Amino acid sequence: MKTALITGASRGIGRATALKFAKSGYCVAINYNKNTEMAESLRQEIKSLGARAEIFRADISDCSEVQKMVADMKDKFGRIDVLVNNAGIALPQGLFTDFGEDDIKSVFDTNVIGMMNCTKAVTKHMVHNKSGQIVNISSVWGTIGGSCEVIYSASKAAVIGFTKALAKELAPSGIRVNCVAPGLIETDMNSHLTHNEKAEFAEGVALGRIGKAEEVAETVFFLASEAASYITGEVLSVDGGII
Ligand code: NAP
């Protein structure tokens, strides 16, 4: 049975993605950092669907924790077919000049270094098998830049550069690397936004609404599937059409 490691799967887009892979016949490795209860409840939900999932706590910004997680996953599942680099954090909105070094470091440690730690740990198994799929989660702000989201935008632009370069490097090993760039999606990450702020954002979206985690999950699954066998190094926007 094929296996998928989804980082940051306890909540939001990661959770929806884990469910999509589980419903599609994958064994799912649920990575999370702090929220054991949510990760465990997802494991139970997947189990109730008749599929298999295990939880793996690891702070992806910590290279040794990631290496242990991937070794544990390999022990339990025997193989690693898909990596979804989803775990990410954002800062409160604010002017770039008002943030400190620690803010910059925390965002890059998770969104960029964390993604690289996971990719490095998993890639050696994929190269050995001469097959694998990696899907990274960027953001609309990584493609067009967001005012008062400068540090987050820069980290998500790095995800795109990483995807495009790694896709070229790993293609000869039979590994595809792609990226999804969601617009505003209804998750905890945006729980600080008021109803009016979300409605205001939706006015700049061609489809006139913000997105659902399940809509991102469908696209992640597509990119990891055989249906996307001739797509690599691509950035697919799931943003309802930014006007
Ligand atoms: P979310 O609801 O805030 O969930 C974040 C997930 O990441 C949680 O499962 C969290 O685990 C995990 N996480 C955070 N830091 C981690 C770390 N150091 N190690 C391991 N796991 C960690 O976020 P979301 O909205 O679903 O976002 C998922 C991804 O989509 C992120 O990369 C985000 O930047 C991107 N994105 C989101 C939106 C949006 O509008 N929501 C738009 C564009 C892109 P715990 O629960 O254990 O803390």
Q: Quickly count the helices.
A: 8
Derived structural class: alpha/beta
- State the fourth-level CATH superfamily: NAD(P)-binding Rossmann-like Domain
Give, in spatial order, the strands making up the sheet with the most strands: 3-2-1-4-5-6-7
Number of strands: 7
Low-pLDDT parts are none
Query: In CATH terms, what is the architecture?
Result: 3-Layer(aba) Sandwich
> Roughly what percent helix?
40-55%
**Terminal Cα span:** 42 Å
CATH topology: Rossmann fold
Structural shape:
globular
What characterizes the major β-sheet?
A: 7 strands, parallel
Count the domains.
1
Can you walk through the features of this model?
- There is one protein chain.
- This protein is 47% helix and 15% strand.
- The chain has a seven-stranded parallel sheet, sandwiched between helices.
- The termini are far apart.
- The longest helix has 29 residues, at 101-129.
- Helix 4 (101-129) links the parallel strand 4 and strand 5 (132-137).
- The chain is α/β, with parallel strands linked by helices and 243 residues long.
- Helix 1 packs parallel to helix 2 and helix 1 crosses helix 8 (213-224).
- The chain has helices at 12-23, 36-48, 63-77, 101-129, 140-144, 150-170, 195-202, 213-224; strands at 3-6, 27-32, 53-57, 82-85, 132-137, 175-182, 235-238.
- The protein has a single domain, classed as 3-Layer(aba) Sandwich (Rossmann fold), CATH 3.40.50.
- It binds NADP nicotinamide-adenine-dinucleotide phosphate.
- NADP nicotinamide-adenine-dinucleotide phosphate (NAP) is lined by residues 7-14, 31-35, 38, 59-61, 86-90, 110, 114, 137, 139, 182, 184-185, 187-190.
- NADP nicotinamide-adenine-dinucleotide phosphate is lined by residues 7-14, 31-35, 38, 59-61, 86-90, 110, 114, 137, 139, 182, 184-185, 187-190.
